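Re: that backbone. Tokens:
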């Protein structure tokens, strides 16, 4: 029998799958569990995320709310997230109070934080009551799930490398699986689109591996190729070069500078929000980042909401003294390469099209979790067949 290209691909698919099966099972299972972590946390503590607005109630002015929170929480408000849904709480980022004259100068605008990681508080927008922080009963569980997903709970770079290498193998498994999915005889092409449920369990197991793997292949490739950005710096840099736009650019990006020598209008946070809404006039969620020093701008991001909303924000940067527009970044006007790169994280997490894509990713992750199991069972079944065939030949052989 000739050693065909298909046989070569099959062998690669088999042995790479066996070598990485356990790691991929853990990574895919943890990814499946993590998909709806936000919704689960909200379900466990709905009082932190939703409020009952009293009849005829009005929202507290943000400029009255900020100093109230700063006094109560003994810190500086550095960010404010306002949901489009009027029944949602505000998310307020509070950092430790800075020391020195510069900190006092920025007190009115919430700037001057010391660079430490702020604590996010949930606040009732009608009463100003602090309802809690982002830490909840499921926080530690999902933190552990994420660490399992990223580095298998192995400290240092070893776990991250194991996951990264297994993810590269997973890419080859998906691609080789697509090659094997195509039937040898074209007249049998319909078989790859369905699971023959009335067949024996071996055939059903084979169809589950073959057919479900095919249907989820595109999403699995997207997850794997984007996930490698967290595993390897060389991959992230290479992808940035290929795409012509920096991956995770926003992490270290600083706000545009304001002009302290320009006009000082003593604007309120509400004024900045009003100007941003005029520049991006649609209903959506707002995130206000207040200046960290006397030179930074006020940065306001706005994104649309809904079951099928794209996880992309328009960003407005305003001079903290005059309120003049410094920079306007509309997602729809960005080049395609920059749009794709800016969506790396939501593309990996399944948040790219809101709840709709999360559901699809959850199903695809479930399929990915099952593939090492069904694939191993196919391999074991083939191993059992070989001895039987050998025994049959031995019996037929004349003495």
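Recovered sequence:
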């Amino acid at each position: 029998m000739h050693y065909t290209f298909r046989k070569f691909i099959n062998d690669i698919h088999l042995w790479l799958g066996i070598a990485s099966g356990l790691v991929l099972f853990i990574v895919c299972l943890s990814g499946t569990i993590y998909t709806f972590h936000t919704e689960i946390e909200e379900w466990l503590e709905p009082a932190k995320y939703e409020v009952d607005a009293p009849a005829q109630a009005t929202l507290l002015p943000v400029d009255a709310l900020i100093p109230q929170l700063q006094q109560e929480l003994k810190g500086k408000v550095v960010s404010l997230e306002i949901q489009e849904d009027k029944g949602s709480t505000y998310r307020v980022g509070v950092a430790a109070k800075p020391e020195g004259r510069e900190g006092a100068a920025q007190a009115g605008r919430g700037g001057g934080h010391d660079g430490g990681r702020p604590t996010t508080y949930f606040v009732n927008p009608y009463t100003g009551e602090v309802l809690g922080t982002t830490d909840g009963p499921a926080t530690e569980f999902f933190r552990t799930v994420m660490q399992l997903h990223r580095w298998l709970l192995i400290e240092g770079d070893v776990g991250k490398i194991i996951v990264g290498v297994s993810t590269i193998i997973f890419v080859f498994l998906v691609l080789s699986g697509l090659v094997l999915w195509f039937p040898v005889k074209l007249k049998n092409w319909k078989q790859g689109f369905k699971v023959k449920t009335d067949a024996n369990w071996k055939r059903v197991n084979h169809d589950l591996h073959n057919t479900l793997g095919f249907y989820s292949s595109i999403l699995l490739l997207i997850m794997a190729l984007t996930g490698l950005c967290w595993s390897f710096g060389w991959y992230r840099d290479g992808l940035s070069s290929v795409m012509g736009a920096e991956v995770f650019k926003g992490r270290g990006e600083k706000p545009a500078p304001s002009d302290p020598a320009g006009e000082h209008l003593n604007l309120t946070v509400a004024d900045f929000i009003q100007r941003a809404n005029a520049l991006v006039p649609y209903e959506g969620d707002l995130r206000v980042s207040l200046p960290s020093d006397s030179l930074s701008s006020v940065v306001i991001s706005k994104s649309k909401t809904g079951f099928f909303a794209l996880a992309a924000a328009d960003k407005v940067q305003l001079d903290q003294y005059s309120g003049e527009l410094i920079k306007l970044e509309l997602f729809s006007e960005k080049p395609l390469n920059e749009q794709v790169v800016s969506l790396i994280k939501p593309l990996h997490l399944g948040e790219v099209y809101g709840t709709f894509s999360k559901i699809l990713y959850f199903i695809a992750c479930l399929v990915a979790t099952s593939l090492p199991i069904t694939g191993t069972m196919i391999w074991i079944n083939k191993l059992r067949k070989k001895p039987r065939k050998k025994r049959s030949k031995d019996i037929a052989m004349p003495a």
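The two ends are 26 Å apart (CA to CA). The first helix runs from residue 5 to 34.
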